[in-house]
Amino acid sequence: MSDTLLVIAAKAVKLAEKLGASQAEAYVAQSRSFAIDVENSAIKSASEKRDAGLGIRSVVDKRIGFAYVTTIEEKDIPNVAEQSVSLAKASIPDPDFVSFPEASKSYPRIKDMTDSEIANLSSEDAASLVVRTVEATTEALGEIQAAIEAQLSANSGRRAIANSLGVEGTFESTSSFLYSYPTIKTEDDQTSSFEYQISRKLNEIDPEWIGVGAAKNTLASLGGRTIDPGEMPVILSPLAVGTVLGNGFAGAVNAEEVQYGRSYISDAFGEEIASEELEIIDDSLLRAGLGSRPFDAEGYPSSTTEVLSKGILKNLLHNSYTANKDGVENTGNASRPSYAGIPSIAPSNFVITPGSGTLDDLISEVRKGVLVRNTYDRPNMTTGDLSAMVAEGHYIENGEVCCPVRSTLVGINMRELLKRILRIGDDTRVTTSVVSPSIVIESAKITSG
User: Fold this and answer.
1) Please, are residues 364 and 399 in contact by the beta-carbon 8 Å criterion?
2) Are 419 and 409 in contact (CB under 8 A)?
3) How many domains does one find in the chain?
4) Is residue 294 domain-shared with residue 412, that is, in the same domain?
5) What is the pLDDT of residue 379?
6) Are 77 and 11 in contact (CB under 8 A)?
7) Has residue 10 got a pLDDT over 80?
8) How confident is the model at residue 3 (pLDDT cuts 50, 70, 90)?
């Protein structure tokens, strides 16, 4: 089937060229996603979705047109090719466009990108995994009544790309995601929390670990209160790091954002912008990584990019357009949500080098501070200002977790946050595209209540 997708892509490119495109690119994808939801041991819903489509970018005298179709039937290729070329001819020339990527001699091989158990997962087996998660959550909560939501999703897909410069590539991947989300209510309080795992291998998903973790996190959130405000140390758990640095810093080193002056590090290339403790790479070759791939969304070969080394900003993340515009090497970070979109820039696996010490070790070194397990807030990408609500977190006193916090905000500018990173633990966790341990920030402004 993968070869079939590549044949479709190659035909689409040739058709666009015959219609007048000086360069053309075709991206073809086919996927299957399966999800099952359980609420209190009863199946709430189950759904399966299959999707396939083709997107074509055409270039005519530096004018670019894009069109897509939600099928991969051969009869539909001429129409979408014609639309793409027509839109290119009607577009305004882009003086900064140089070229699509040229062909590579070969693409790297990445291990453990697929799992037949995920690709062939039955509804019965999926239901069993989710029910086990709910049962583990219920058992860990003991006598406390709870409303428990849980879901398992399994995804498998193939994609292929071809362009006028000889690029031809295809690969397939799978992934699975399982979570538990209990809500408990007592006479004095109501709270909820969650736990999850995501992996390219089904046998790496542990329903009992997820269930017990979700219950413990929820129980630990009972009795949340406000705390005295002030400047104090903040520990970001891997989940919080995934938001604050995964979105808040990975977005800042997006070359397009820098070129347009929309990044708070636009003027800092080559400078020491962070603590020497912080080292980050973008690794699209990581074994079984959720962002791993042999090539990016333009067919450019994957690699490992050094982003921060000893606090110095070494590289931005580029696709072919931004790399050509800056006259630098492409880092292979072209990304697109599907065949229905044009390439943008995104990290692959944003990996923060671990230090030493467990989360408990990091906590034991803080006299008075805040542990942030989770926040959904990210910084203003232009100014770097961060005002992060602690969606789930705890107050630390004398080296121990004291109590959960409520209505509490962490305020700091990202340039200051990067500089104030004091310690990095070794409790590395995969949170989608970010692979990170916990991080200790020397101080940040805490407001509460």
Assistant:
1) yes
2) no
3) 2
4) yes
5) 95
6) yes
7) yes
8) confident
pLDDT tier for residue 397 given thresholds of 50, 70 and 90: very high
Question: Model-level pTM?
Answer: 0.95
Residues 303 and 389 placed together within one structural domain of the fold = yes
The identity of residue 422, as a single letter, is: L
Task: Tell me the pLDDT tens digit for each residue of 98-107.
Answer: 999 999 889 9
d(CA 247, CA 261): 17
Both structure tokens of 54: 């083709």
C-alpha angle 132-136-139 in degrees, rounded to nearest 5: 135
The pLDDT value given to residue 1: 45
Q: Which of 219, 245, 267 is the last residue of a domain?
A: 219
Residues 93 and 228 in one domain: no
Please give the full DSSP string across 102-118, using - where no structure is assigned: PPPS-----SS---HHH
Q: What is the DSSP letter of 204?
A: G
Q: What is the b/e burial string over 260-297, where b = at least 16 CB atoms within 10 angstroms of the residue's CB?
A: eeebbbeebbeeebbbeebbbbbbbbbebbbbbbbbbb
Residue for token pair 């670990």: 209
| Whole-angstrom distance, CA of residue 335 vs CA of residue 206 | 30
State the residue range of the domain holding 318.
Answer: 224-449
Tell me: pLDDT of 245 over 70: yes
* Model confidence band, residue 41 (pLDDT cutoffs 50, 70, 90): confident
Could you give the CA distance from residue 406 to residue 225 in angstroms, rounded to a whole number? 5
Whether 194 and 247 share a structural domain: no
Residues 193 and 319 in one domain: no
pLDDT in tens, 370-383: 999 999 999 999 99
State which amino acid sits at residue 257: E
Statement to judge: residues 432 and 395 lie in one domain: yes
User: Please, what is the average pLDDT of the chain?
Assistant: 96
pLDDT tens, residue by residue, 401-410: 999 999 999 9
Domain CATH number, residue 75: 3.30.2290.10
What residue has token string 């090719």?
81
Out of 168, 194, 219, a domain closes at 219
How far is it, in rounded angstroms, from Cα 300 to Cα 297?
A: 7
Token pair, residue 170, equals 């295809």
Is the CB of residue 419 less than 8 Å from the CB of residue 275? yes
Do 302 and 445 lie in a common domain? yes
Please tell me the distance from the alpha carbon of residue 359 to that of residue 202, in angstroms, as a whole number.
Answer: 27
Greatest distance between any 2 Cα atoms in the chain? 73
